[in-house]
Amino acid sequence: MKEQGPDLIWQAKINNIDSCRNSRIDSVDDEQIYQLDIEISQYAQKVSEIWAICTGGHDKIKSEFKEIKEFSQKERIKPRGGVASLLARSDKKSLDELKAESFPNPPKLKGEIFSYLSLSMDSKLGVHLNGNFSLSSSRLQTENDFLKSDCDNAKWNTYILHEVLPDLHIKLLEYIVKLEEARHLEEGTNFTPHTAKNFWPINKYLTDLYKIYGLNVVRKLGVNEQKFFWTEANGGQFVSLKEARILEEEESDIANILVNLEVPIRVVKLDKDKMGQLDEIVKSKKPKNFPYTPISGKLVCEELQLMRPFKNNNIIRNDGTQDSLFQLLTFIFQDKKSFKHLARLPLVPLSDGSVGKFGGQKIYIGKQKHLDLFPNCRSRLISINLPKDLLEIFSSDEFSK
């Protein structure tokens, strides 16, 4: 009886490994971005995966890192690494079927850190990291001493993690945004961006050590004016943090109003945690002028002032009932600092359905009986449909000042 060979339990096949290898050989130091198409067979099940990877490093170590430069020369080690992001995965579709679809459509990834040894460390980041880390021979102490200790090895590892890898990470995000832009062209109005959700470099599970890494990635996104942030303004586009005006995602109605103004404001919706992380960078003053602009009532007024003169006073598109104007005024008036910036802005809802300007002709507060008595004066009376909270503000002495 002929003996049977051993059954295949696990196999991983990288379809485009040769082109990736050749790309890396051509340039070791420069940042290289490439895509890995992987098929994994485990028993009878097959899994298809598509990865985006950026490798490279720093050609020169900056002068302010003198100790790091000396360590590099002494140990003959260079600041190099890589960042890998999982773009798509399926256990039901072949690799060709997965590649034919619009991606990225990233599943959750429990990030790990790799070096030359096979064992990895758990980072809980949304990406895998690899670097020329300086590790002790005993991996039992690595988790504790990898970054925390005050030795030269830990300082070098911190430099790789906080300076080198974030640069590679934002290059990878730049590549992912290009994939997203292509998907936007294909899907049109059905497009839902993944950047600020699935590819945001910080999540709630990170320890302080790896949160610093994530903050450095966000910091570099802002300083480098990377077009990573999605706005629905002007048909939808990715903008830099400097161009973006950040609004809490729960304020979706206000966001829709602001992106549909006569001159749209580039509103980017983020959740409270992400806005808190941006605030954290601003408070650190590293850098001093980090380009983060959260939306407030005062800011809306300042943005509108820059848009003058308007073609007509009804600056909110498709607002026949004035409901959107009421919502916008409610948002603006939450910030009392906005009161001084209202002059000449067409935001006064009038009883004839038109819109007047603050500080223009005299406008009065009236009731239905006044409209009945003076039917030709509707353009001089504030809308009687004004919500109670807005009416109280218009009537207040503080607002009249």
TrEMBL record:
<protein>
    <submittedName>
        <fullName>Uncharacterized protein</fullName>
    </submittedName>
</protein>
<dbReference type="InterPro" id="IPR052972">
    <property type="entry name" value="Sacsin_chaperone_reg"/>
</dbReference>
<dbReference type="GO" id="GO:0030544">
    <property type="term" value="F:Hsp70 protein binding"/>
</dbReference>
